[in-house]
Amino acid sequence: MTIPPPAMPEPVLRPFDDRADGPQRLYALIPAAGVGSRSGAQGPKQYQRVAGRRVIDHTVAAFLAVPAIAGVGVVVAPGDTQYHAADERIRVWHVGGETRAHSVFNGLLALSGAGARAQDWVLVHDAARCLIRPADIERLIDACRDEPVGGLLALPLPDTLKQATGQQAPPRVQATVERGDKWLAQTPQMFRWQVLYQALAARQASGFQGVTDESSAVEALGERPLLVVGSSRNFKVTYPEDFAMAQALLMHADAAQEAA
Ligand SMILES: Nc1ccn([C@@H]2O[C@H](COP(=O)(O)OP(=O)(O)OP(=O)(O)O)[C@@H](O)[C@H]2O)c(=O)n1
Ligand SMILES: C[C@](O)(CO)[C@H](O)COP(=O)(O)O
């Protein structure tokens, strides 16, 4: 299924607040304009119900629970009628693009229209990572606040890493790769608005080729984002079996909270 070309952000966007000059703010930007082709679900995976709520509602709730976050911008596909802001701090922008990077770029423009400034922080987080916890978000914020450009949650590789000989089937091992310096990138990825805008704008002409996360675009500017240890539970719901895993973990967390 192809996504229609993105509508540009409306010229006048409802601002998050009527801020005067002040300290840098933190905003969450949630790309939620994908179709979930690998998920096997009927319709986009962010709208599937897991543990009593939709995937995206779990995700947004985690950011709303972080007091330092001034607002949450959600990027959905043009024409998507399934997501509505349920909180004063949420803005919904129908500016999703053909790729995740394109959706994030359009969301950055919308965020600027809603009042974000060059030095403000933007925490980009996949709608599909619905197991993110407020404590993980706060750990990233604490680690990155004094960084020049920002950083991301990531996990040191837990398994032995193999390189395949090529694309042929069945796949065969070419080599075992040293894994001591390899990390799996997660989200949120936290960068200053201006840095991320520059990084993505530089890749716009090539259709954001090879930009699979925010960090990769920032790295191409010559920057070295900070790696902050994330959590294995912060996985991205991608394949059919991931819904059951997410359901089990979220139900377990609810039960543990009730028992406390
Ligand atoms: N054009 C796109 C593609 C993806 N996303 C969002 O980016 C996140 C991570 O992308 P991914 O897991 O690849 O989601 P989908 O593109 O929906 O899944 P698939 O690749 O299986 O189709 C998701 O929250 C998705 O909604 C987006 O905003 N715009
Ligand atoms: C951004 C990301 O979640 C980092 O791991 C990931 O790259 C997005 O997944 P996609 O399948 O490439 O859209």
Please tag this protein with its features.
single chain; 260 residues; Spore Coat Polysaccharide Biosynthesis Protein SpsA, Chain A; seven-stranded mixed beta sheet; two-stranded antiparallel sheet; 6 helices; 21% strand; binds cytidine-5'-triphosphate; binds the ligand C[C@](O)(CO)[C@H](O)COP(=O)(O)O; EC 2.7.7.60; 2-C-methyl-D-erythritol 4-phosphate cytidylyltransferase; IspD/TarI_cytidylyltransf_bact; 2-C-methyl-D-erythritol 4-phosphate cytidylyltransferase activity; isoprene biosynthesis
CATH homologous superfamily assignment: Spore Coat Polysaccharide Biosynthesis Protein SpsA, Chain A
**What is the domain tally?**
1
**CATH class group:** Alpha Beta
The tally of beta strands, per DSSP, is: 11
Catalytic activity: 2-C-methyl-D-erythritol 4-phosphate + CTP + H(+) = 4-CDP-2-C-methyl-D-erythritol + diphosphate
GO molecular function: 2-C-methyl-D-erythritol 4-phosphate cytidylyltransferase activity
Site (Positions MEP for the nucleophilic attack): 179, 236
Pfam families: IspD
